[in-house]
Structures are given as structure tokens and as C-alpha cells.
Amino acid sequence: ATCGHGCKYGECTGPNKCKCFPGFTGKTCNQDLNECGLKPRPCEHRCMNTHGSYKCYCLNGYMLMPDGTCESSRTCAMVNCQYGCEEVEGQVQCLCPSGGLQLGPNGRTCIDIDECSTGKALCSYNRRCVNTFGSFYCKCQLGYELKYTSGRYNCVDVNECVTNTHRCNLHAECLNTQGSFQCKCKQGYQGSGFDCA
């Protein structure tokens, strides 16, 4: 079986037919599935969608159980956690529903970790890091677009001269460069390329 557009998070099972890995959807399995919006809902109380998965957490005063259910807990109610709590060796600890969140100074609320500025996130060549609440993702650098070439997804240079997204003067030539473009005034004209006289 061959899939001309590839299956980003899945496998090719028939001519241009993708079978997505759990947590992903779309014709080429390139979209994250928001499990929190499914019926029946996967979590008893609250749900946080993550890339390719989801996390359950409980309302204040409840404790997250190993099976994902929430059980009323007087100790949790006393601690007043934002995202529910767990009991470890008789001690109550507040929880954060994602590895990209950390307990704030008060030990009850969760604050975002900016993986992009701390250097925890590593994006491959030609990709830039975009921070989100509780996580991050890698996006093509400006001047590049995601394309399926030679069996995988790559960030490929956008040829602004061909796509007509350049802002060169009518009397200038457009020259494509990696990730950008240049404008050069035609013979008999002078200027920056954006202005030619």
C-alpha cells in the first residue's frame, strides 16, 4: 500500500488510507485527537488534552485514583489543590495534570514551564519551539512549510518568487533564498528592490 501524502502519526493500510495511532486523527493522521471532547468523556471530573493523549484530574477536595476516577477526600479539601491531589506515604501532595506544569510557590496551584526558553524542548533543524500551557510543539521556521517528501515530513523552503508572496517592485526581479527572498532592481533601474526608480 502506498500513501502519497504519508501517514504522519499512523501507518498506511491501503491506497491512500491511513490507520492512525491512538490519539491522532485526520486523513494523514497529522491532527491531535481531542479525547476530552469524546462521548462518553474519558475522565470523571476534568480532562486536559495533550499531544496524542490526555490527562485526567479532579476537582478540589477529590483524590485521583489509579483507575482515573475521583474519590472524595477530606485531606484534599483541607489542602485546597487546584487540580486535585494524591496521597504519598501518608502525605498529601497537590497534582499537576501535565509534565509541562509545575507546582507554584504556594504548593497548590500549577504554573506553566516554558520549555522553549528553558531549553528543555529540542526542535529539529528548521523548526522553532512554540510554548503552550503545560506543553510545547515544534513548528516550521518562518519561510518554510511542512511538506511530505521522500517518505517523511520535512520543513521545506517556501519559494516566495513562485508563490507570489514577495513584495518586490514591479521593476525588480525576485530571487529566492533559503527561508526568505531578495529583490533586485532590473537593468536601467536603481533602488532597494522594493523601490526602483
UniProtKB/TrEMBL annotation:
<keyword id="KW-1015">Disulfide bond</keyword>
<dbReference type="InterPro" id="IPR049883">
    <property type="entry name" value="NOTCH1_EGF-like"/>
</dbReference>
<dbReference type="InterPro" id="IPR052235">
    <property type="entry name" value="Nephronectin_domain"/>
</dbReference>
<keyword id="KW-0245">EGF-like domain</keyword>
<feature type="domain" description="EGF-like">
    <location>
        <begin position="32"/>
        <end position="71"/>
    </location>
</feature>
<dbReference type="InterPro" id="IPR000152">
    <property type="entry name" value="EGF-type_Asp/Asn_hydroxyl_site"/>
</dbReference>
<dbReference type="GO" id="GO:0007155">
    <property type="term" value="P:cell adhesion"/>
</dbReference>
<keyword id="KW-0964">Secreted</keyword>
<dbReference type="InterPro" id="IPR001881">
    <property type="entry name" value="EGF-like_Ca-bd_dom"/>
</dbReference>
<feature type="domain" description="EGF-like">
    <location>
        <begin position="112"/>
        <end position="150"/>
    </location>
</feature>
<keyword id="KW-0732">Signal</keyword>
<dbReference type="Pfam" id="PF07645">
    <property type="entry name" value="EGF_CA"/>
</dbReference>
<keyword id="KW-0325">Glycoprotein</keyword>
<dbReference type="InterPro" id="IPR000742">
    <property type="entry name" value="EGF"/>
</dbReference>
<keyword id="KW-0221">Differentiation</keyword>
<keyword id="KW-0130">Cell adhesion</keyword>
<keyword id="KW-0272">Extracellular matrix</keyword>
<keyword id="KW-0677">Repeat</keyword>
<feature type="domain" description="EGF-like">
    <location>
        <begin position="157"/>
        <end position="195"/>
    </location>
</feature>
<comment type="similarity">
    <text>Belongs to the nephronectin family.</text>
</comment>
<dbReference type="GO" id="GO:0030154">
    <property type="term" value="P:cell differentiation"/>
</dbReference>
<protein>
    <submittedName>
        <fullName>EGFL6 protein</fullName>
    </submittedName>
</protein>
<dbReference type="InterPro" id="IPR018097">
    <property type="entry name" value="EGF_Ca-bd_CS"/>
</dbReference>
<dbReference type="GO" id="GO:0005509">
    <property type="term" value="F:calcium ion binding"/>
</dbReference>
<keyword id="KW-0106">Calcium</keyword>
<keyword id="KW-0217">Developmental protein</keyword>
<dbReference type="InterPro" id="IPR009030">
    <property type="entry name" value="Growth_fac_rcpt_cys_sf"/>
</dbReference>
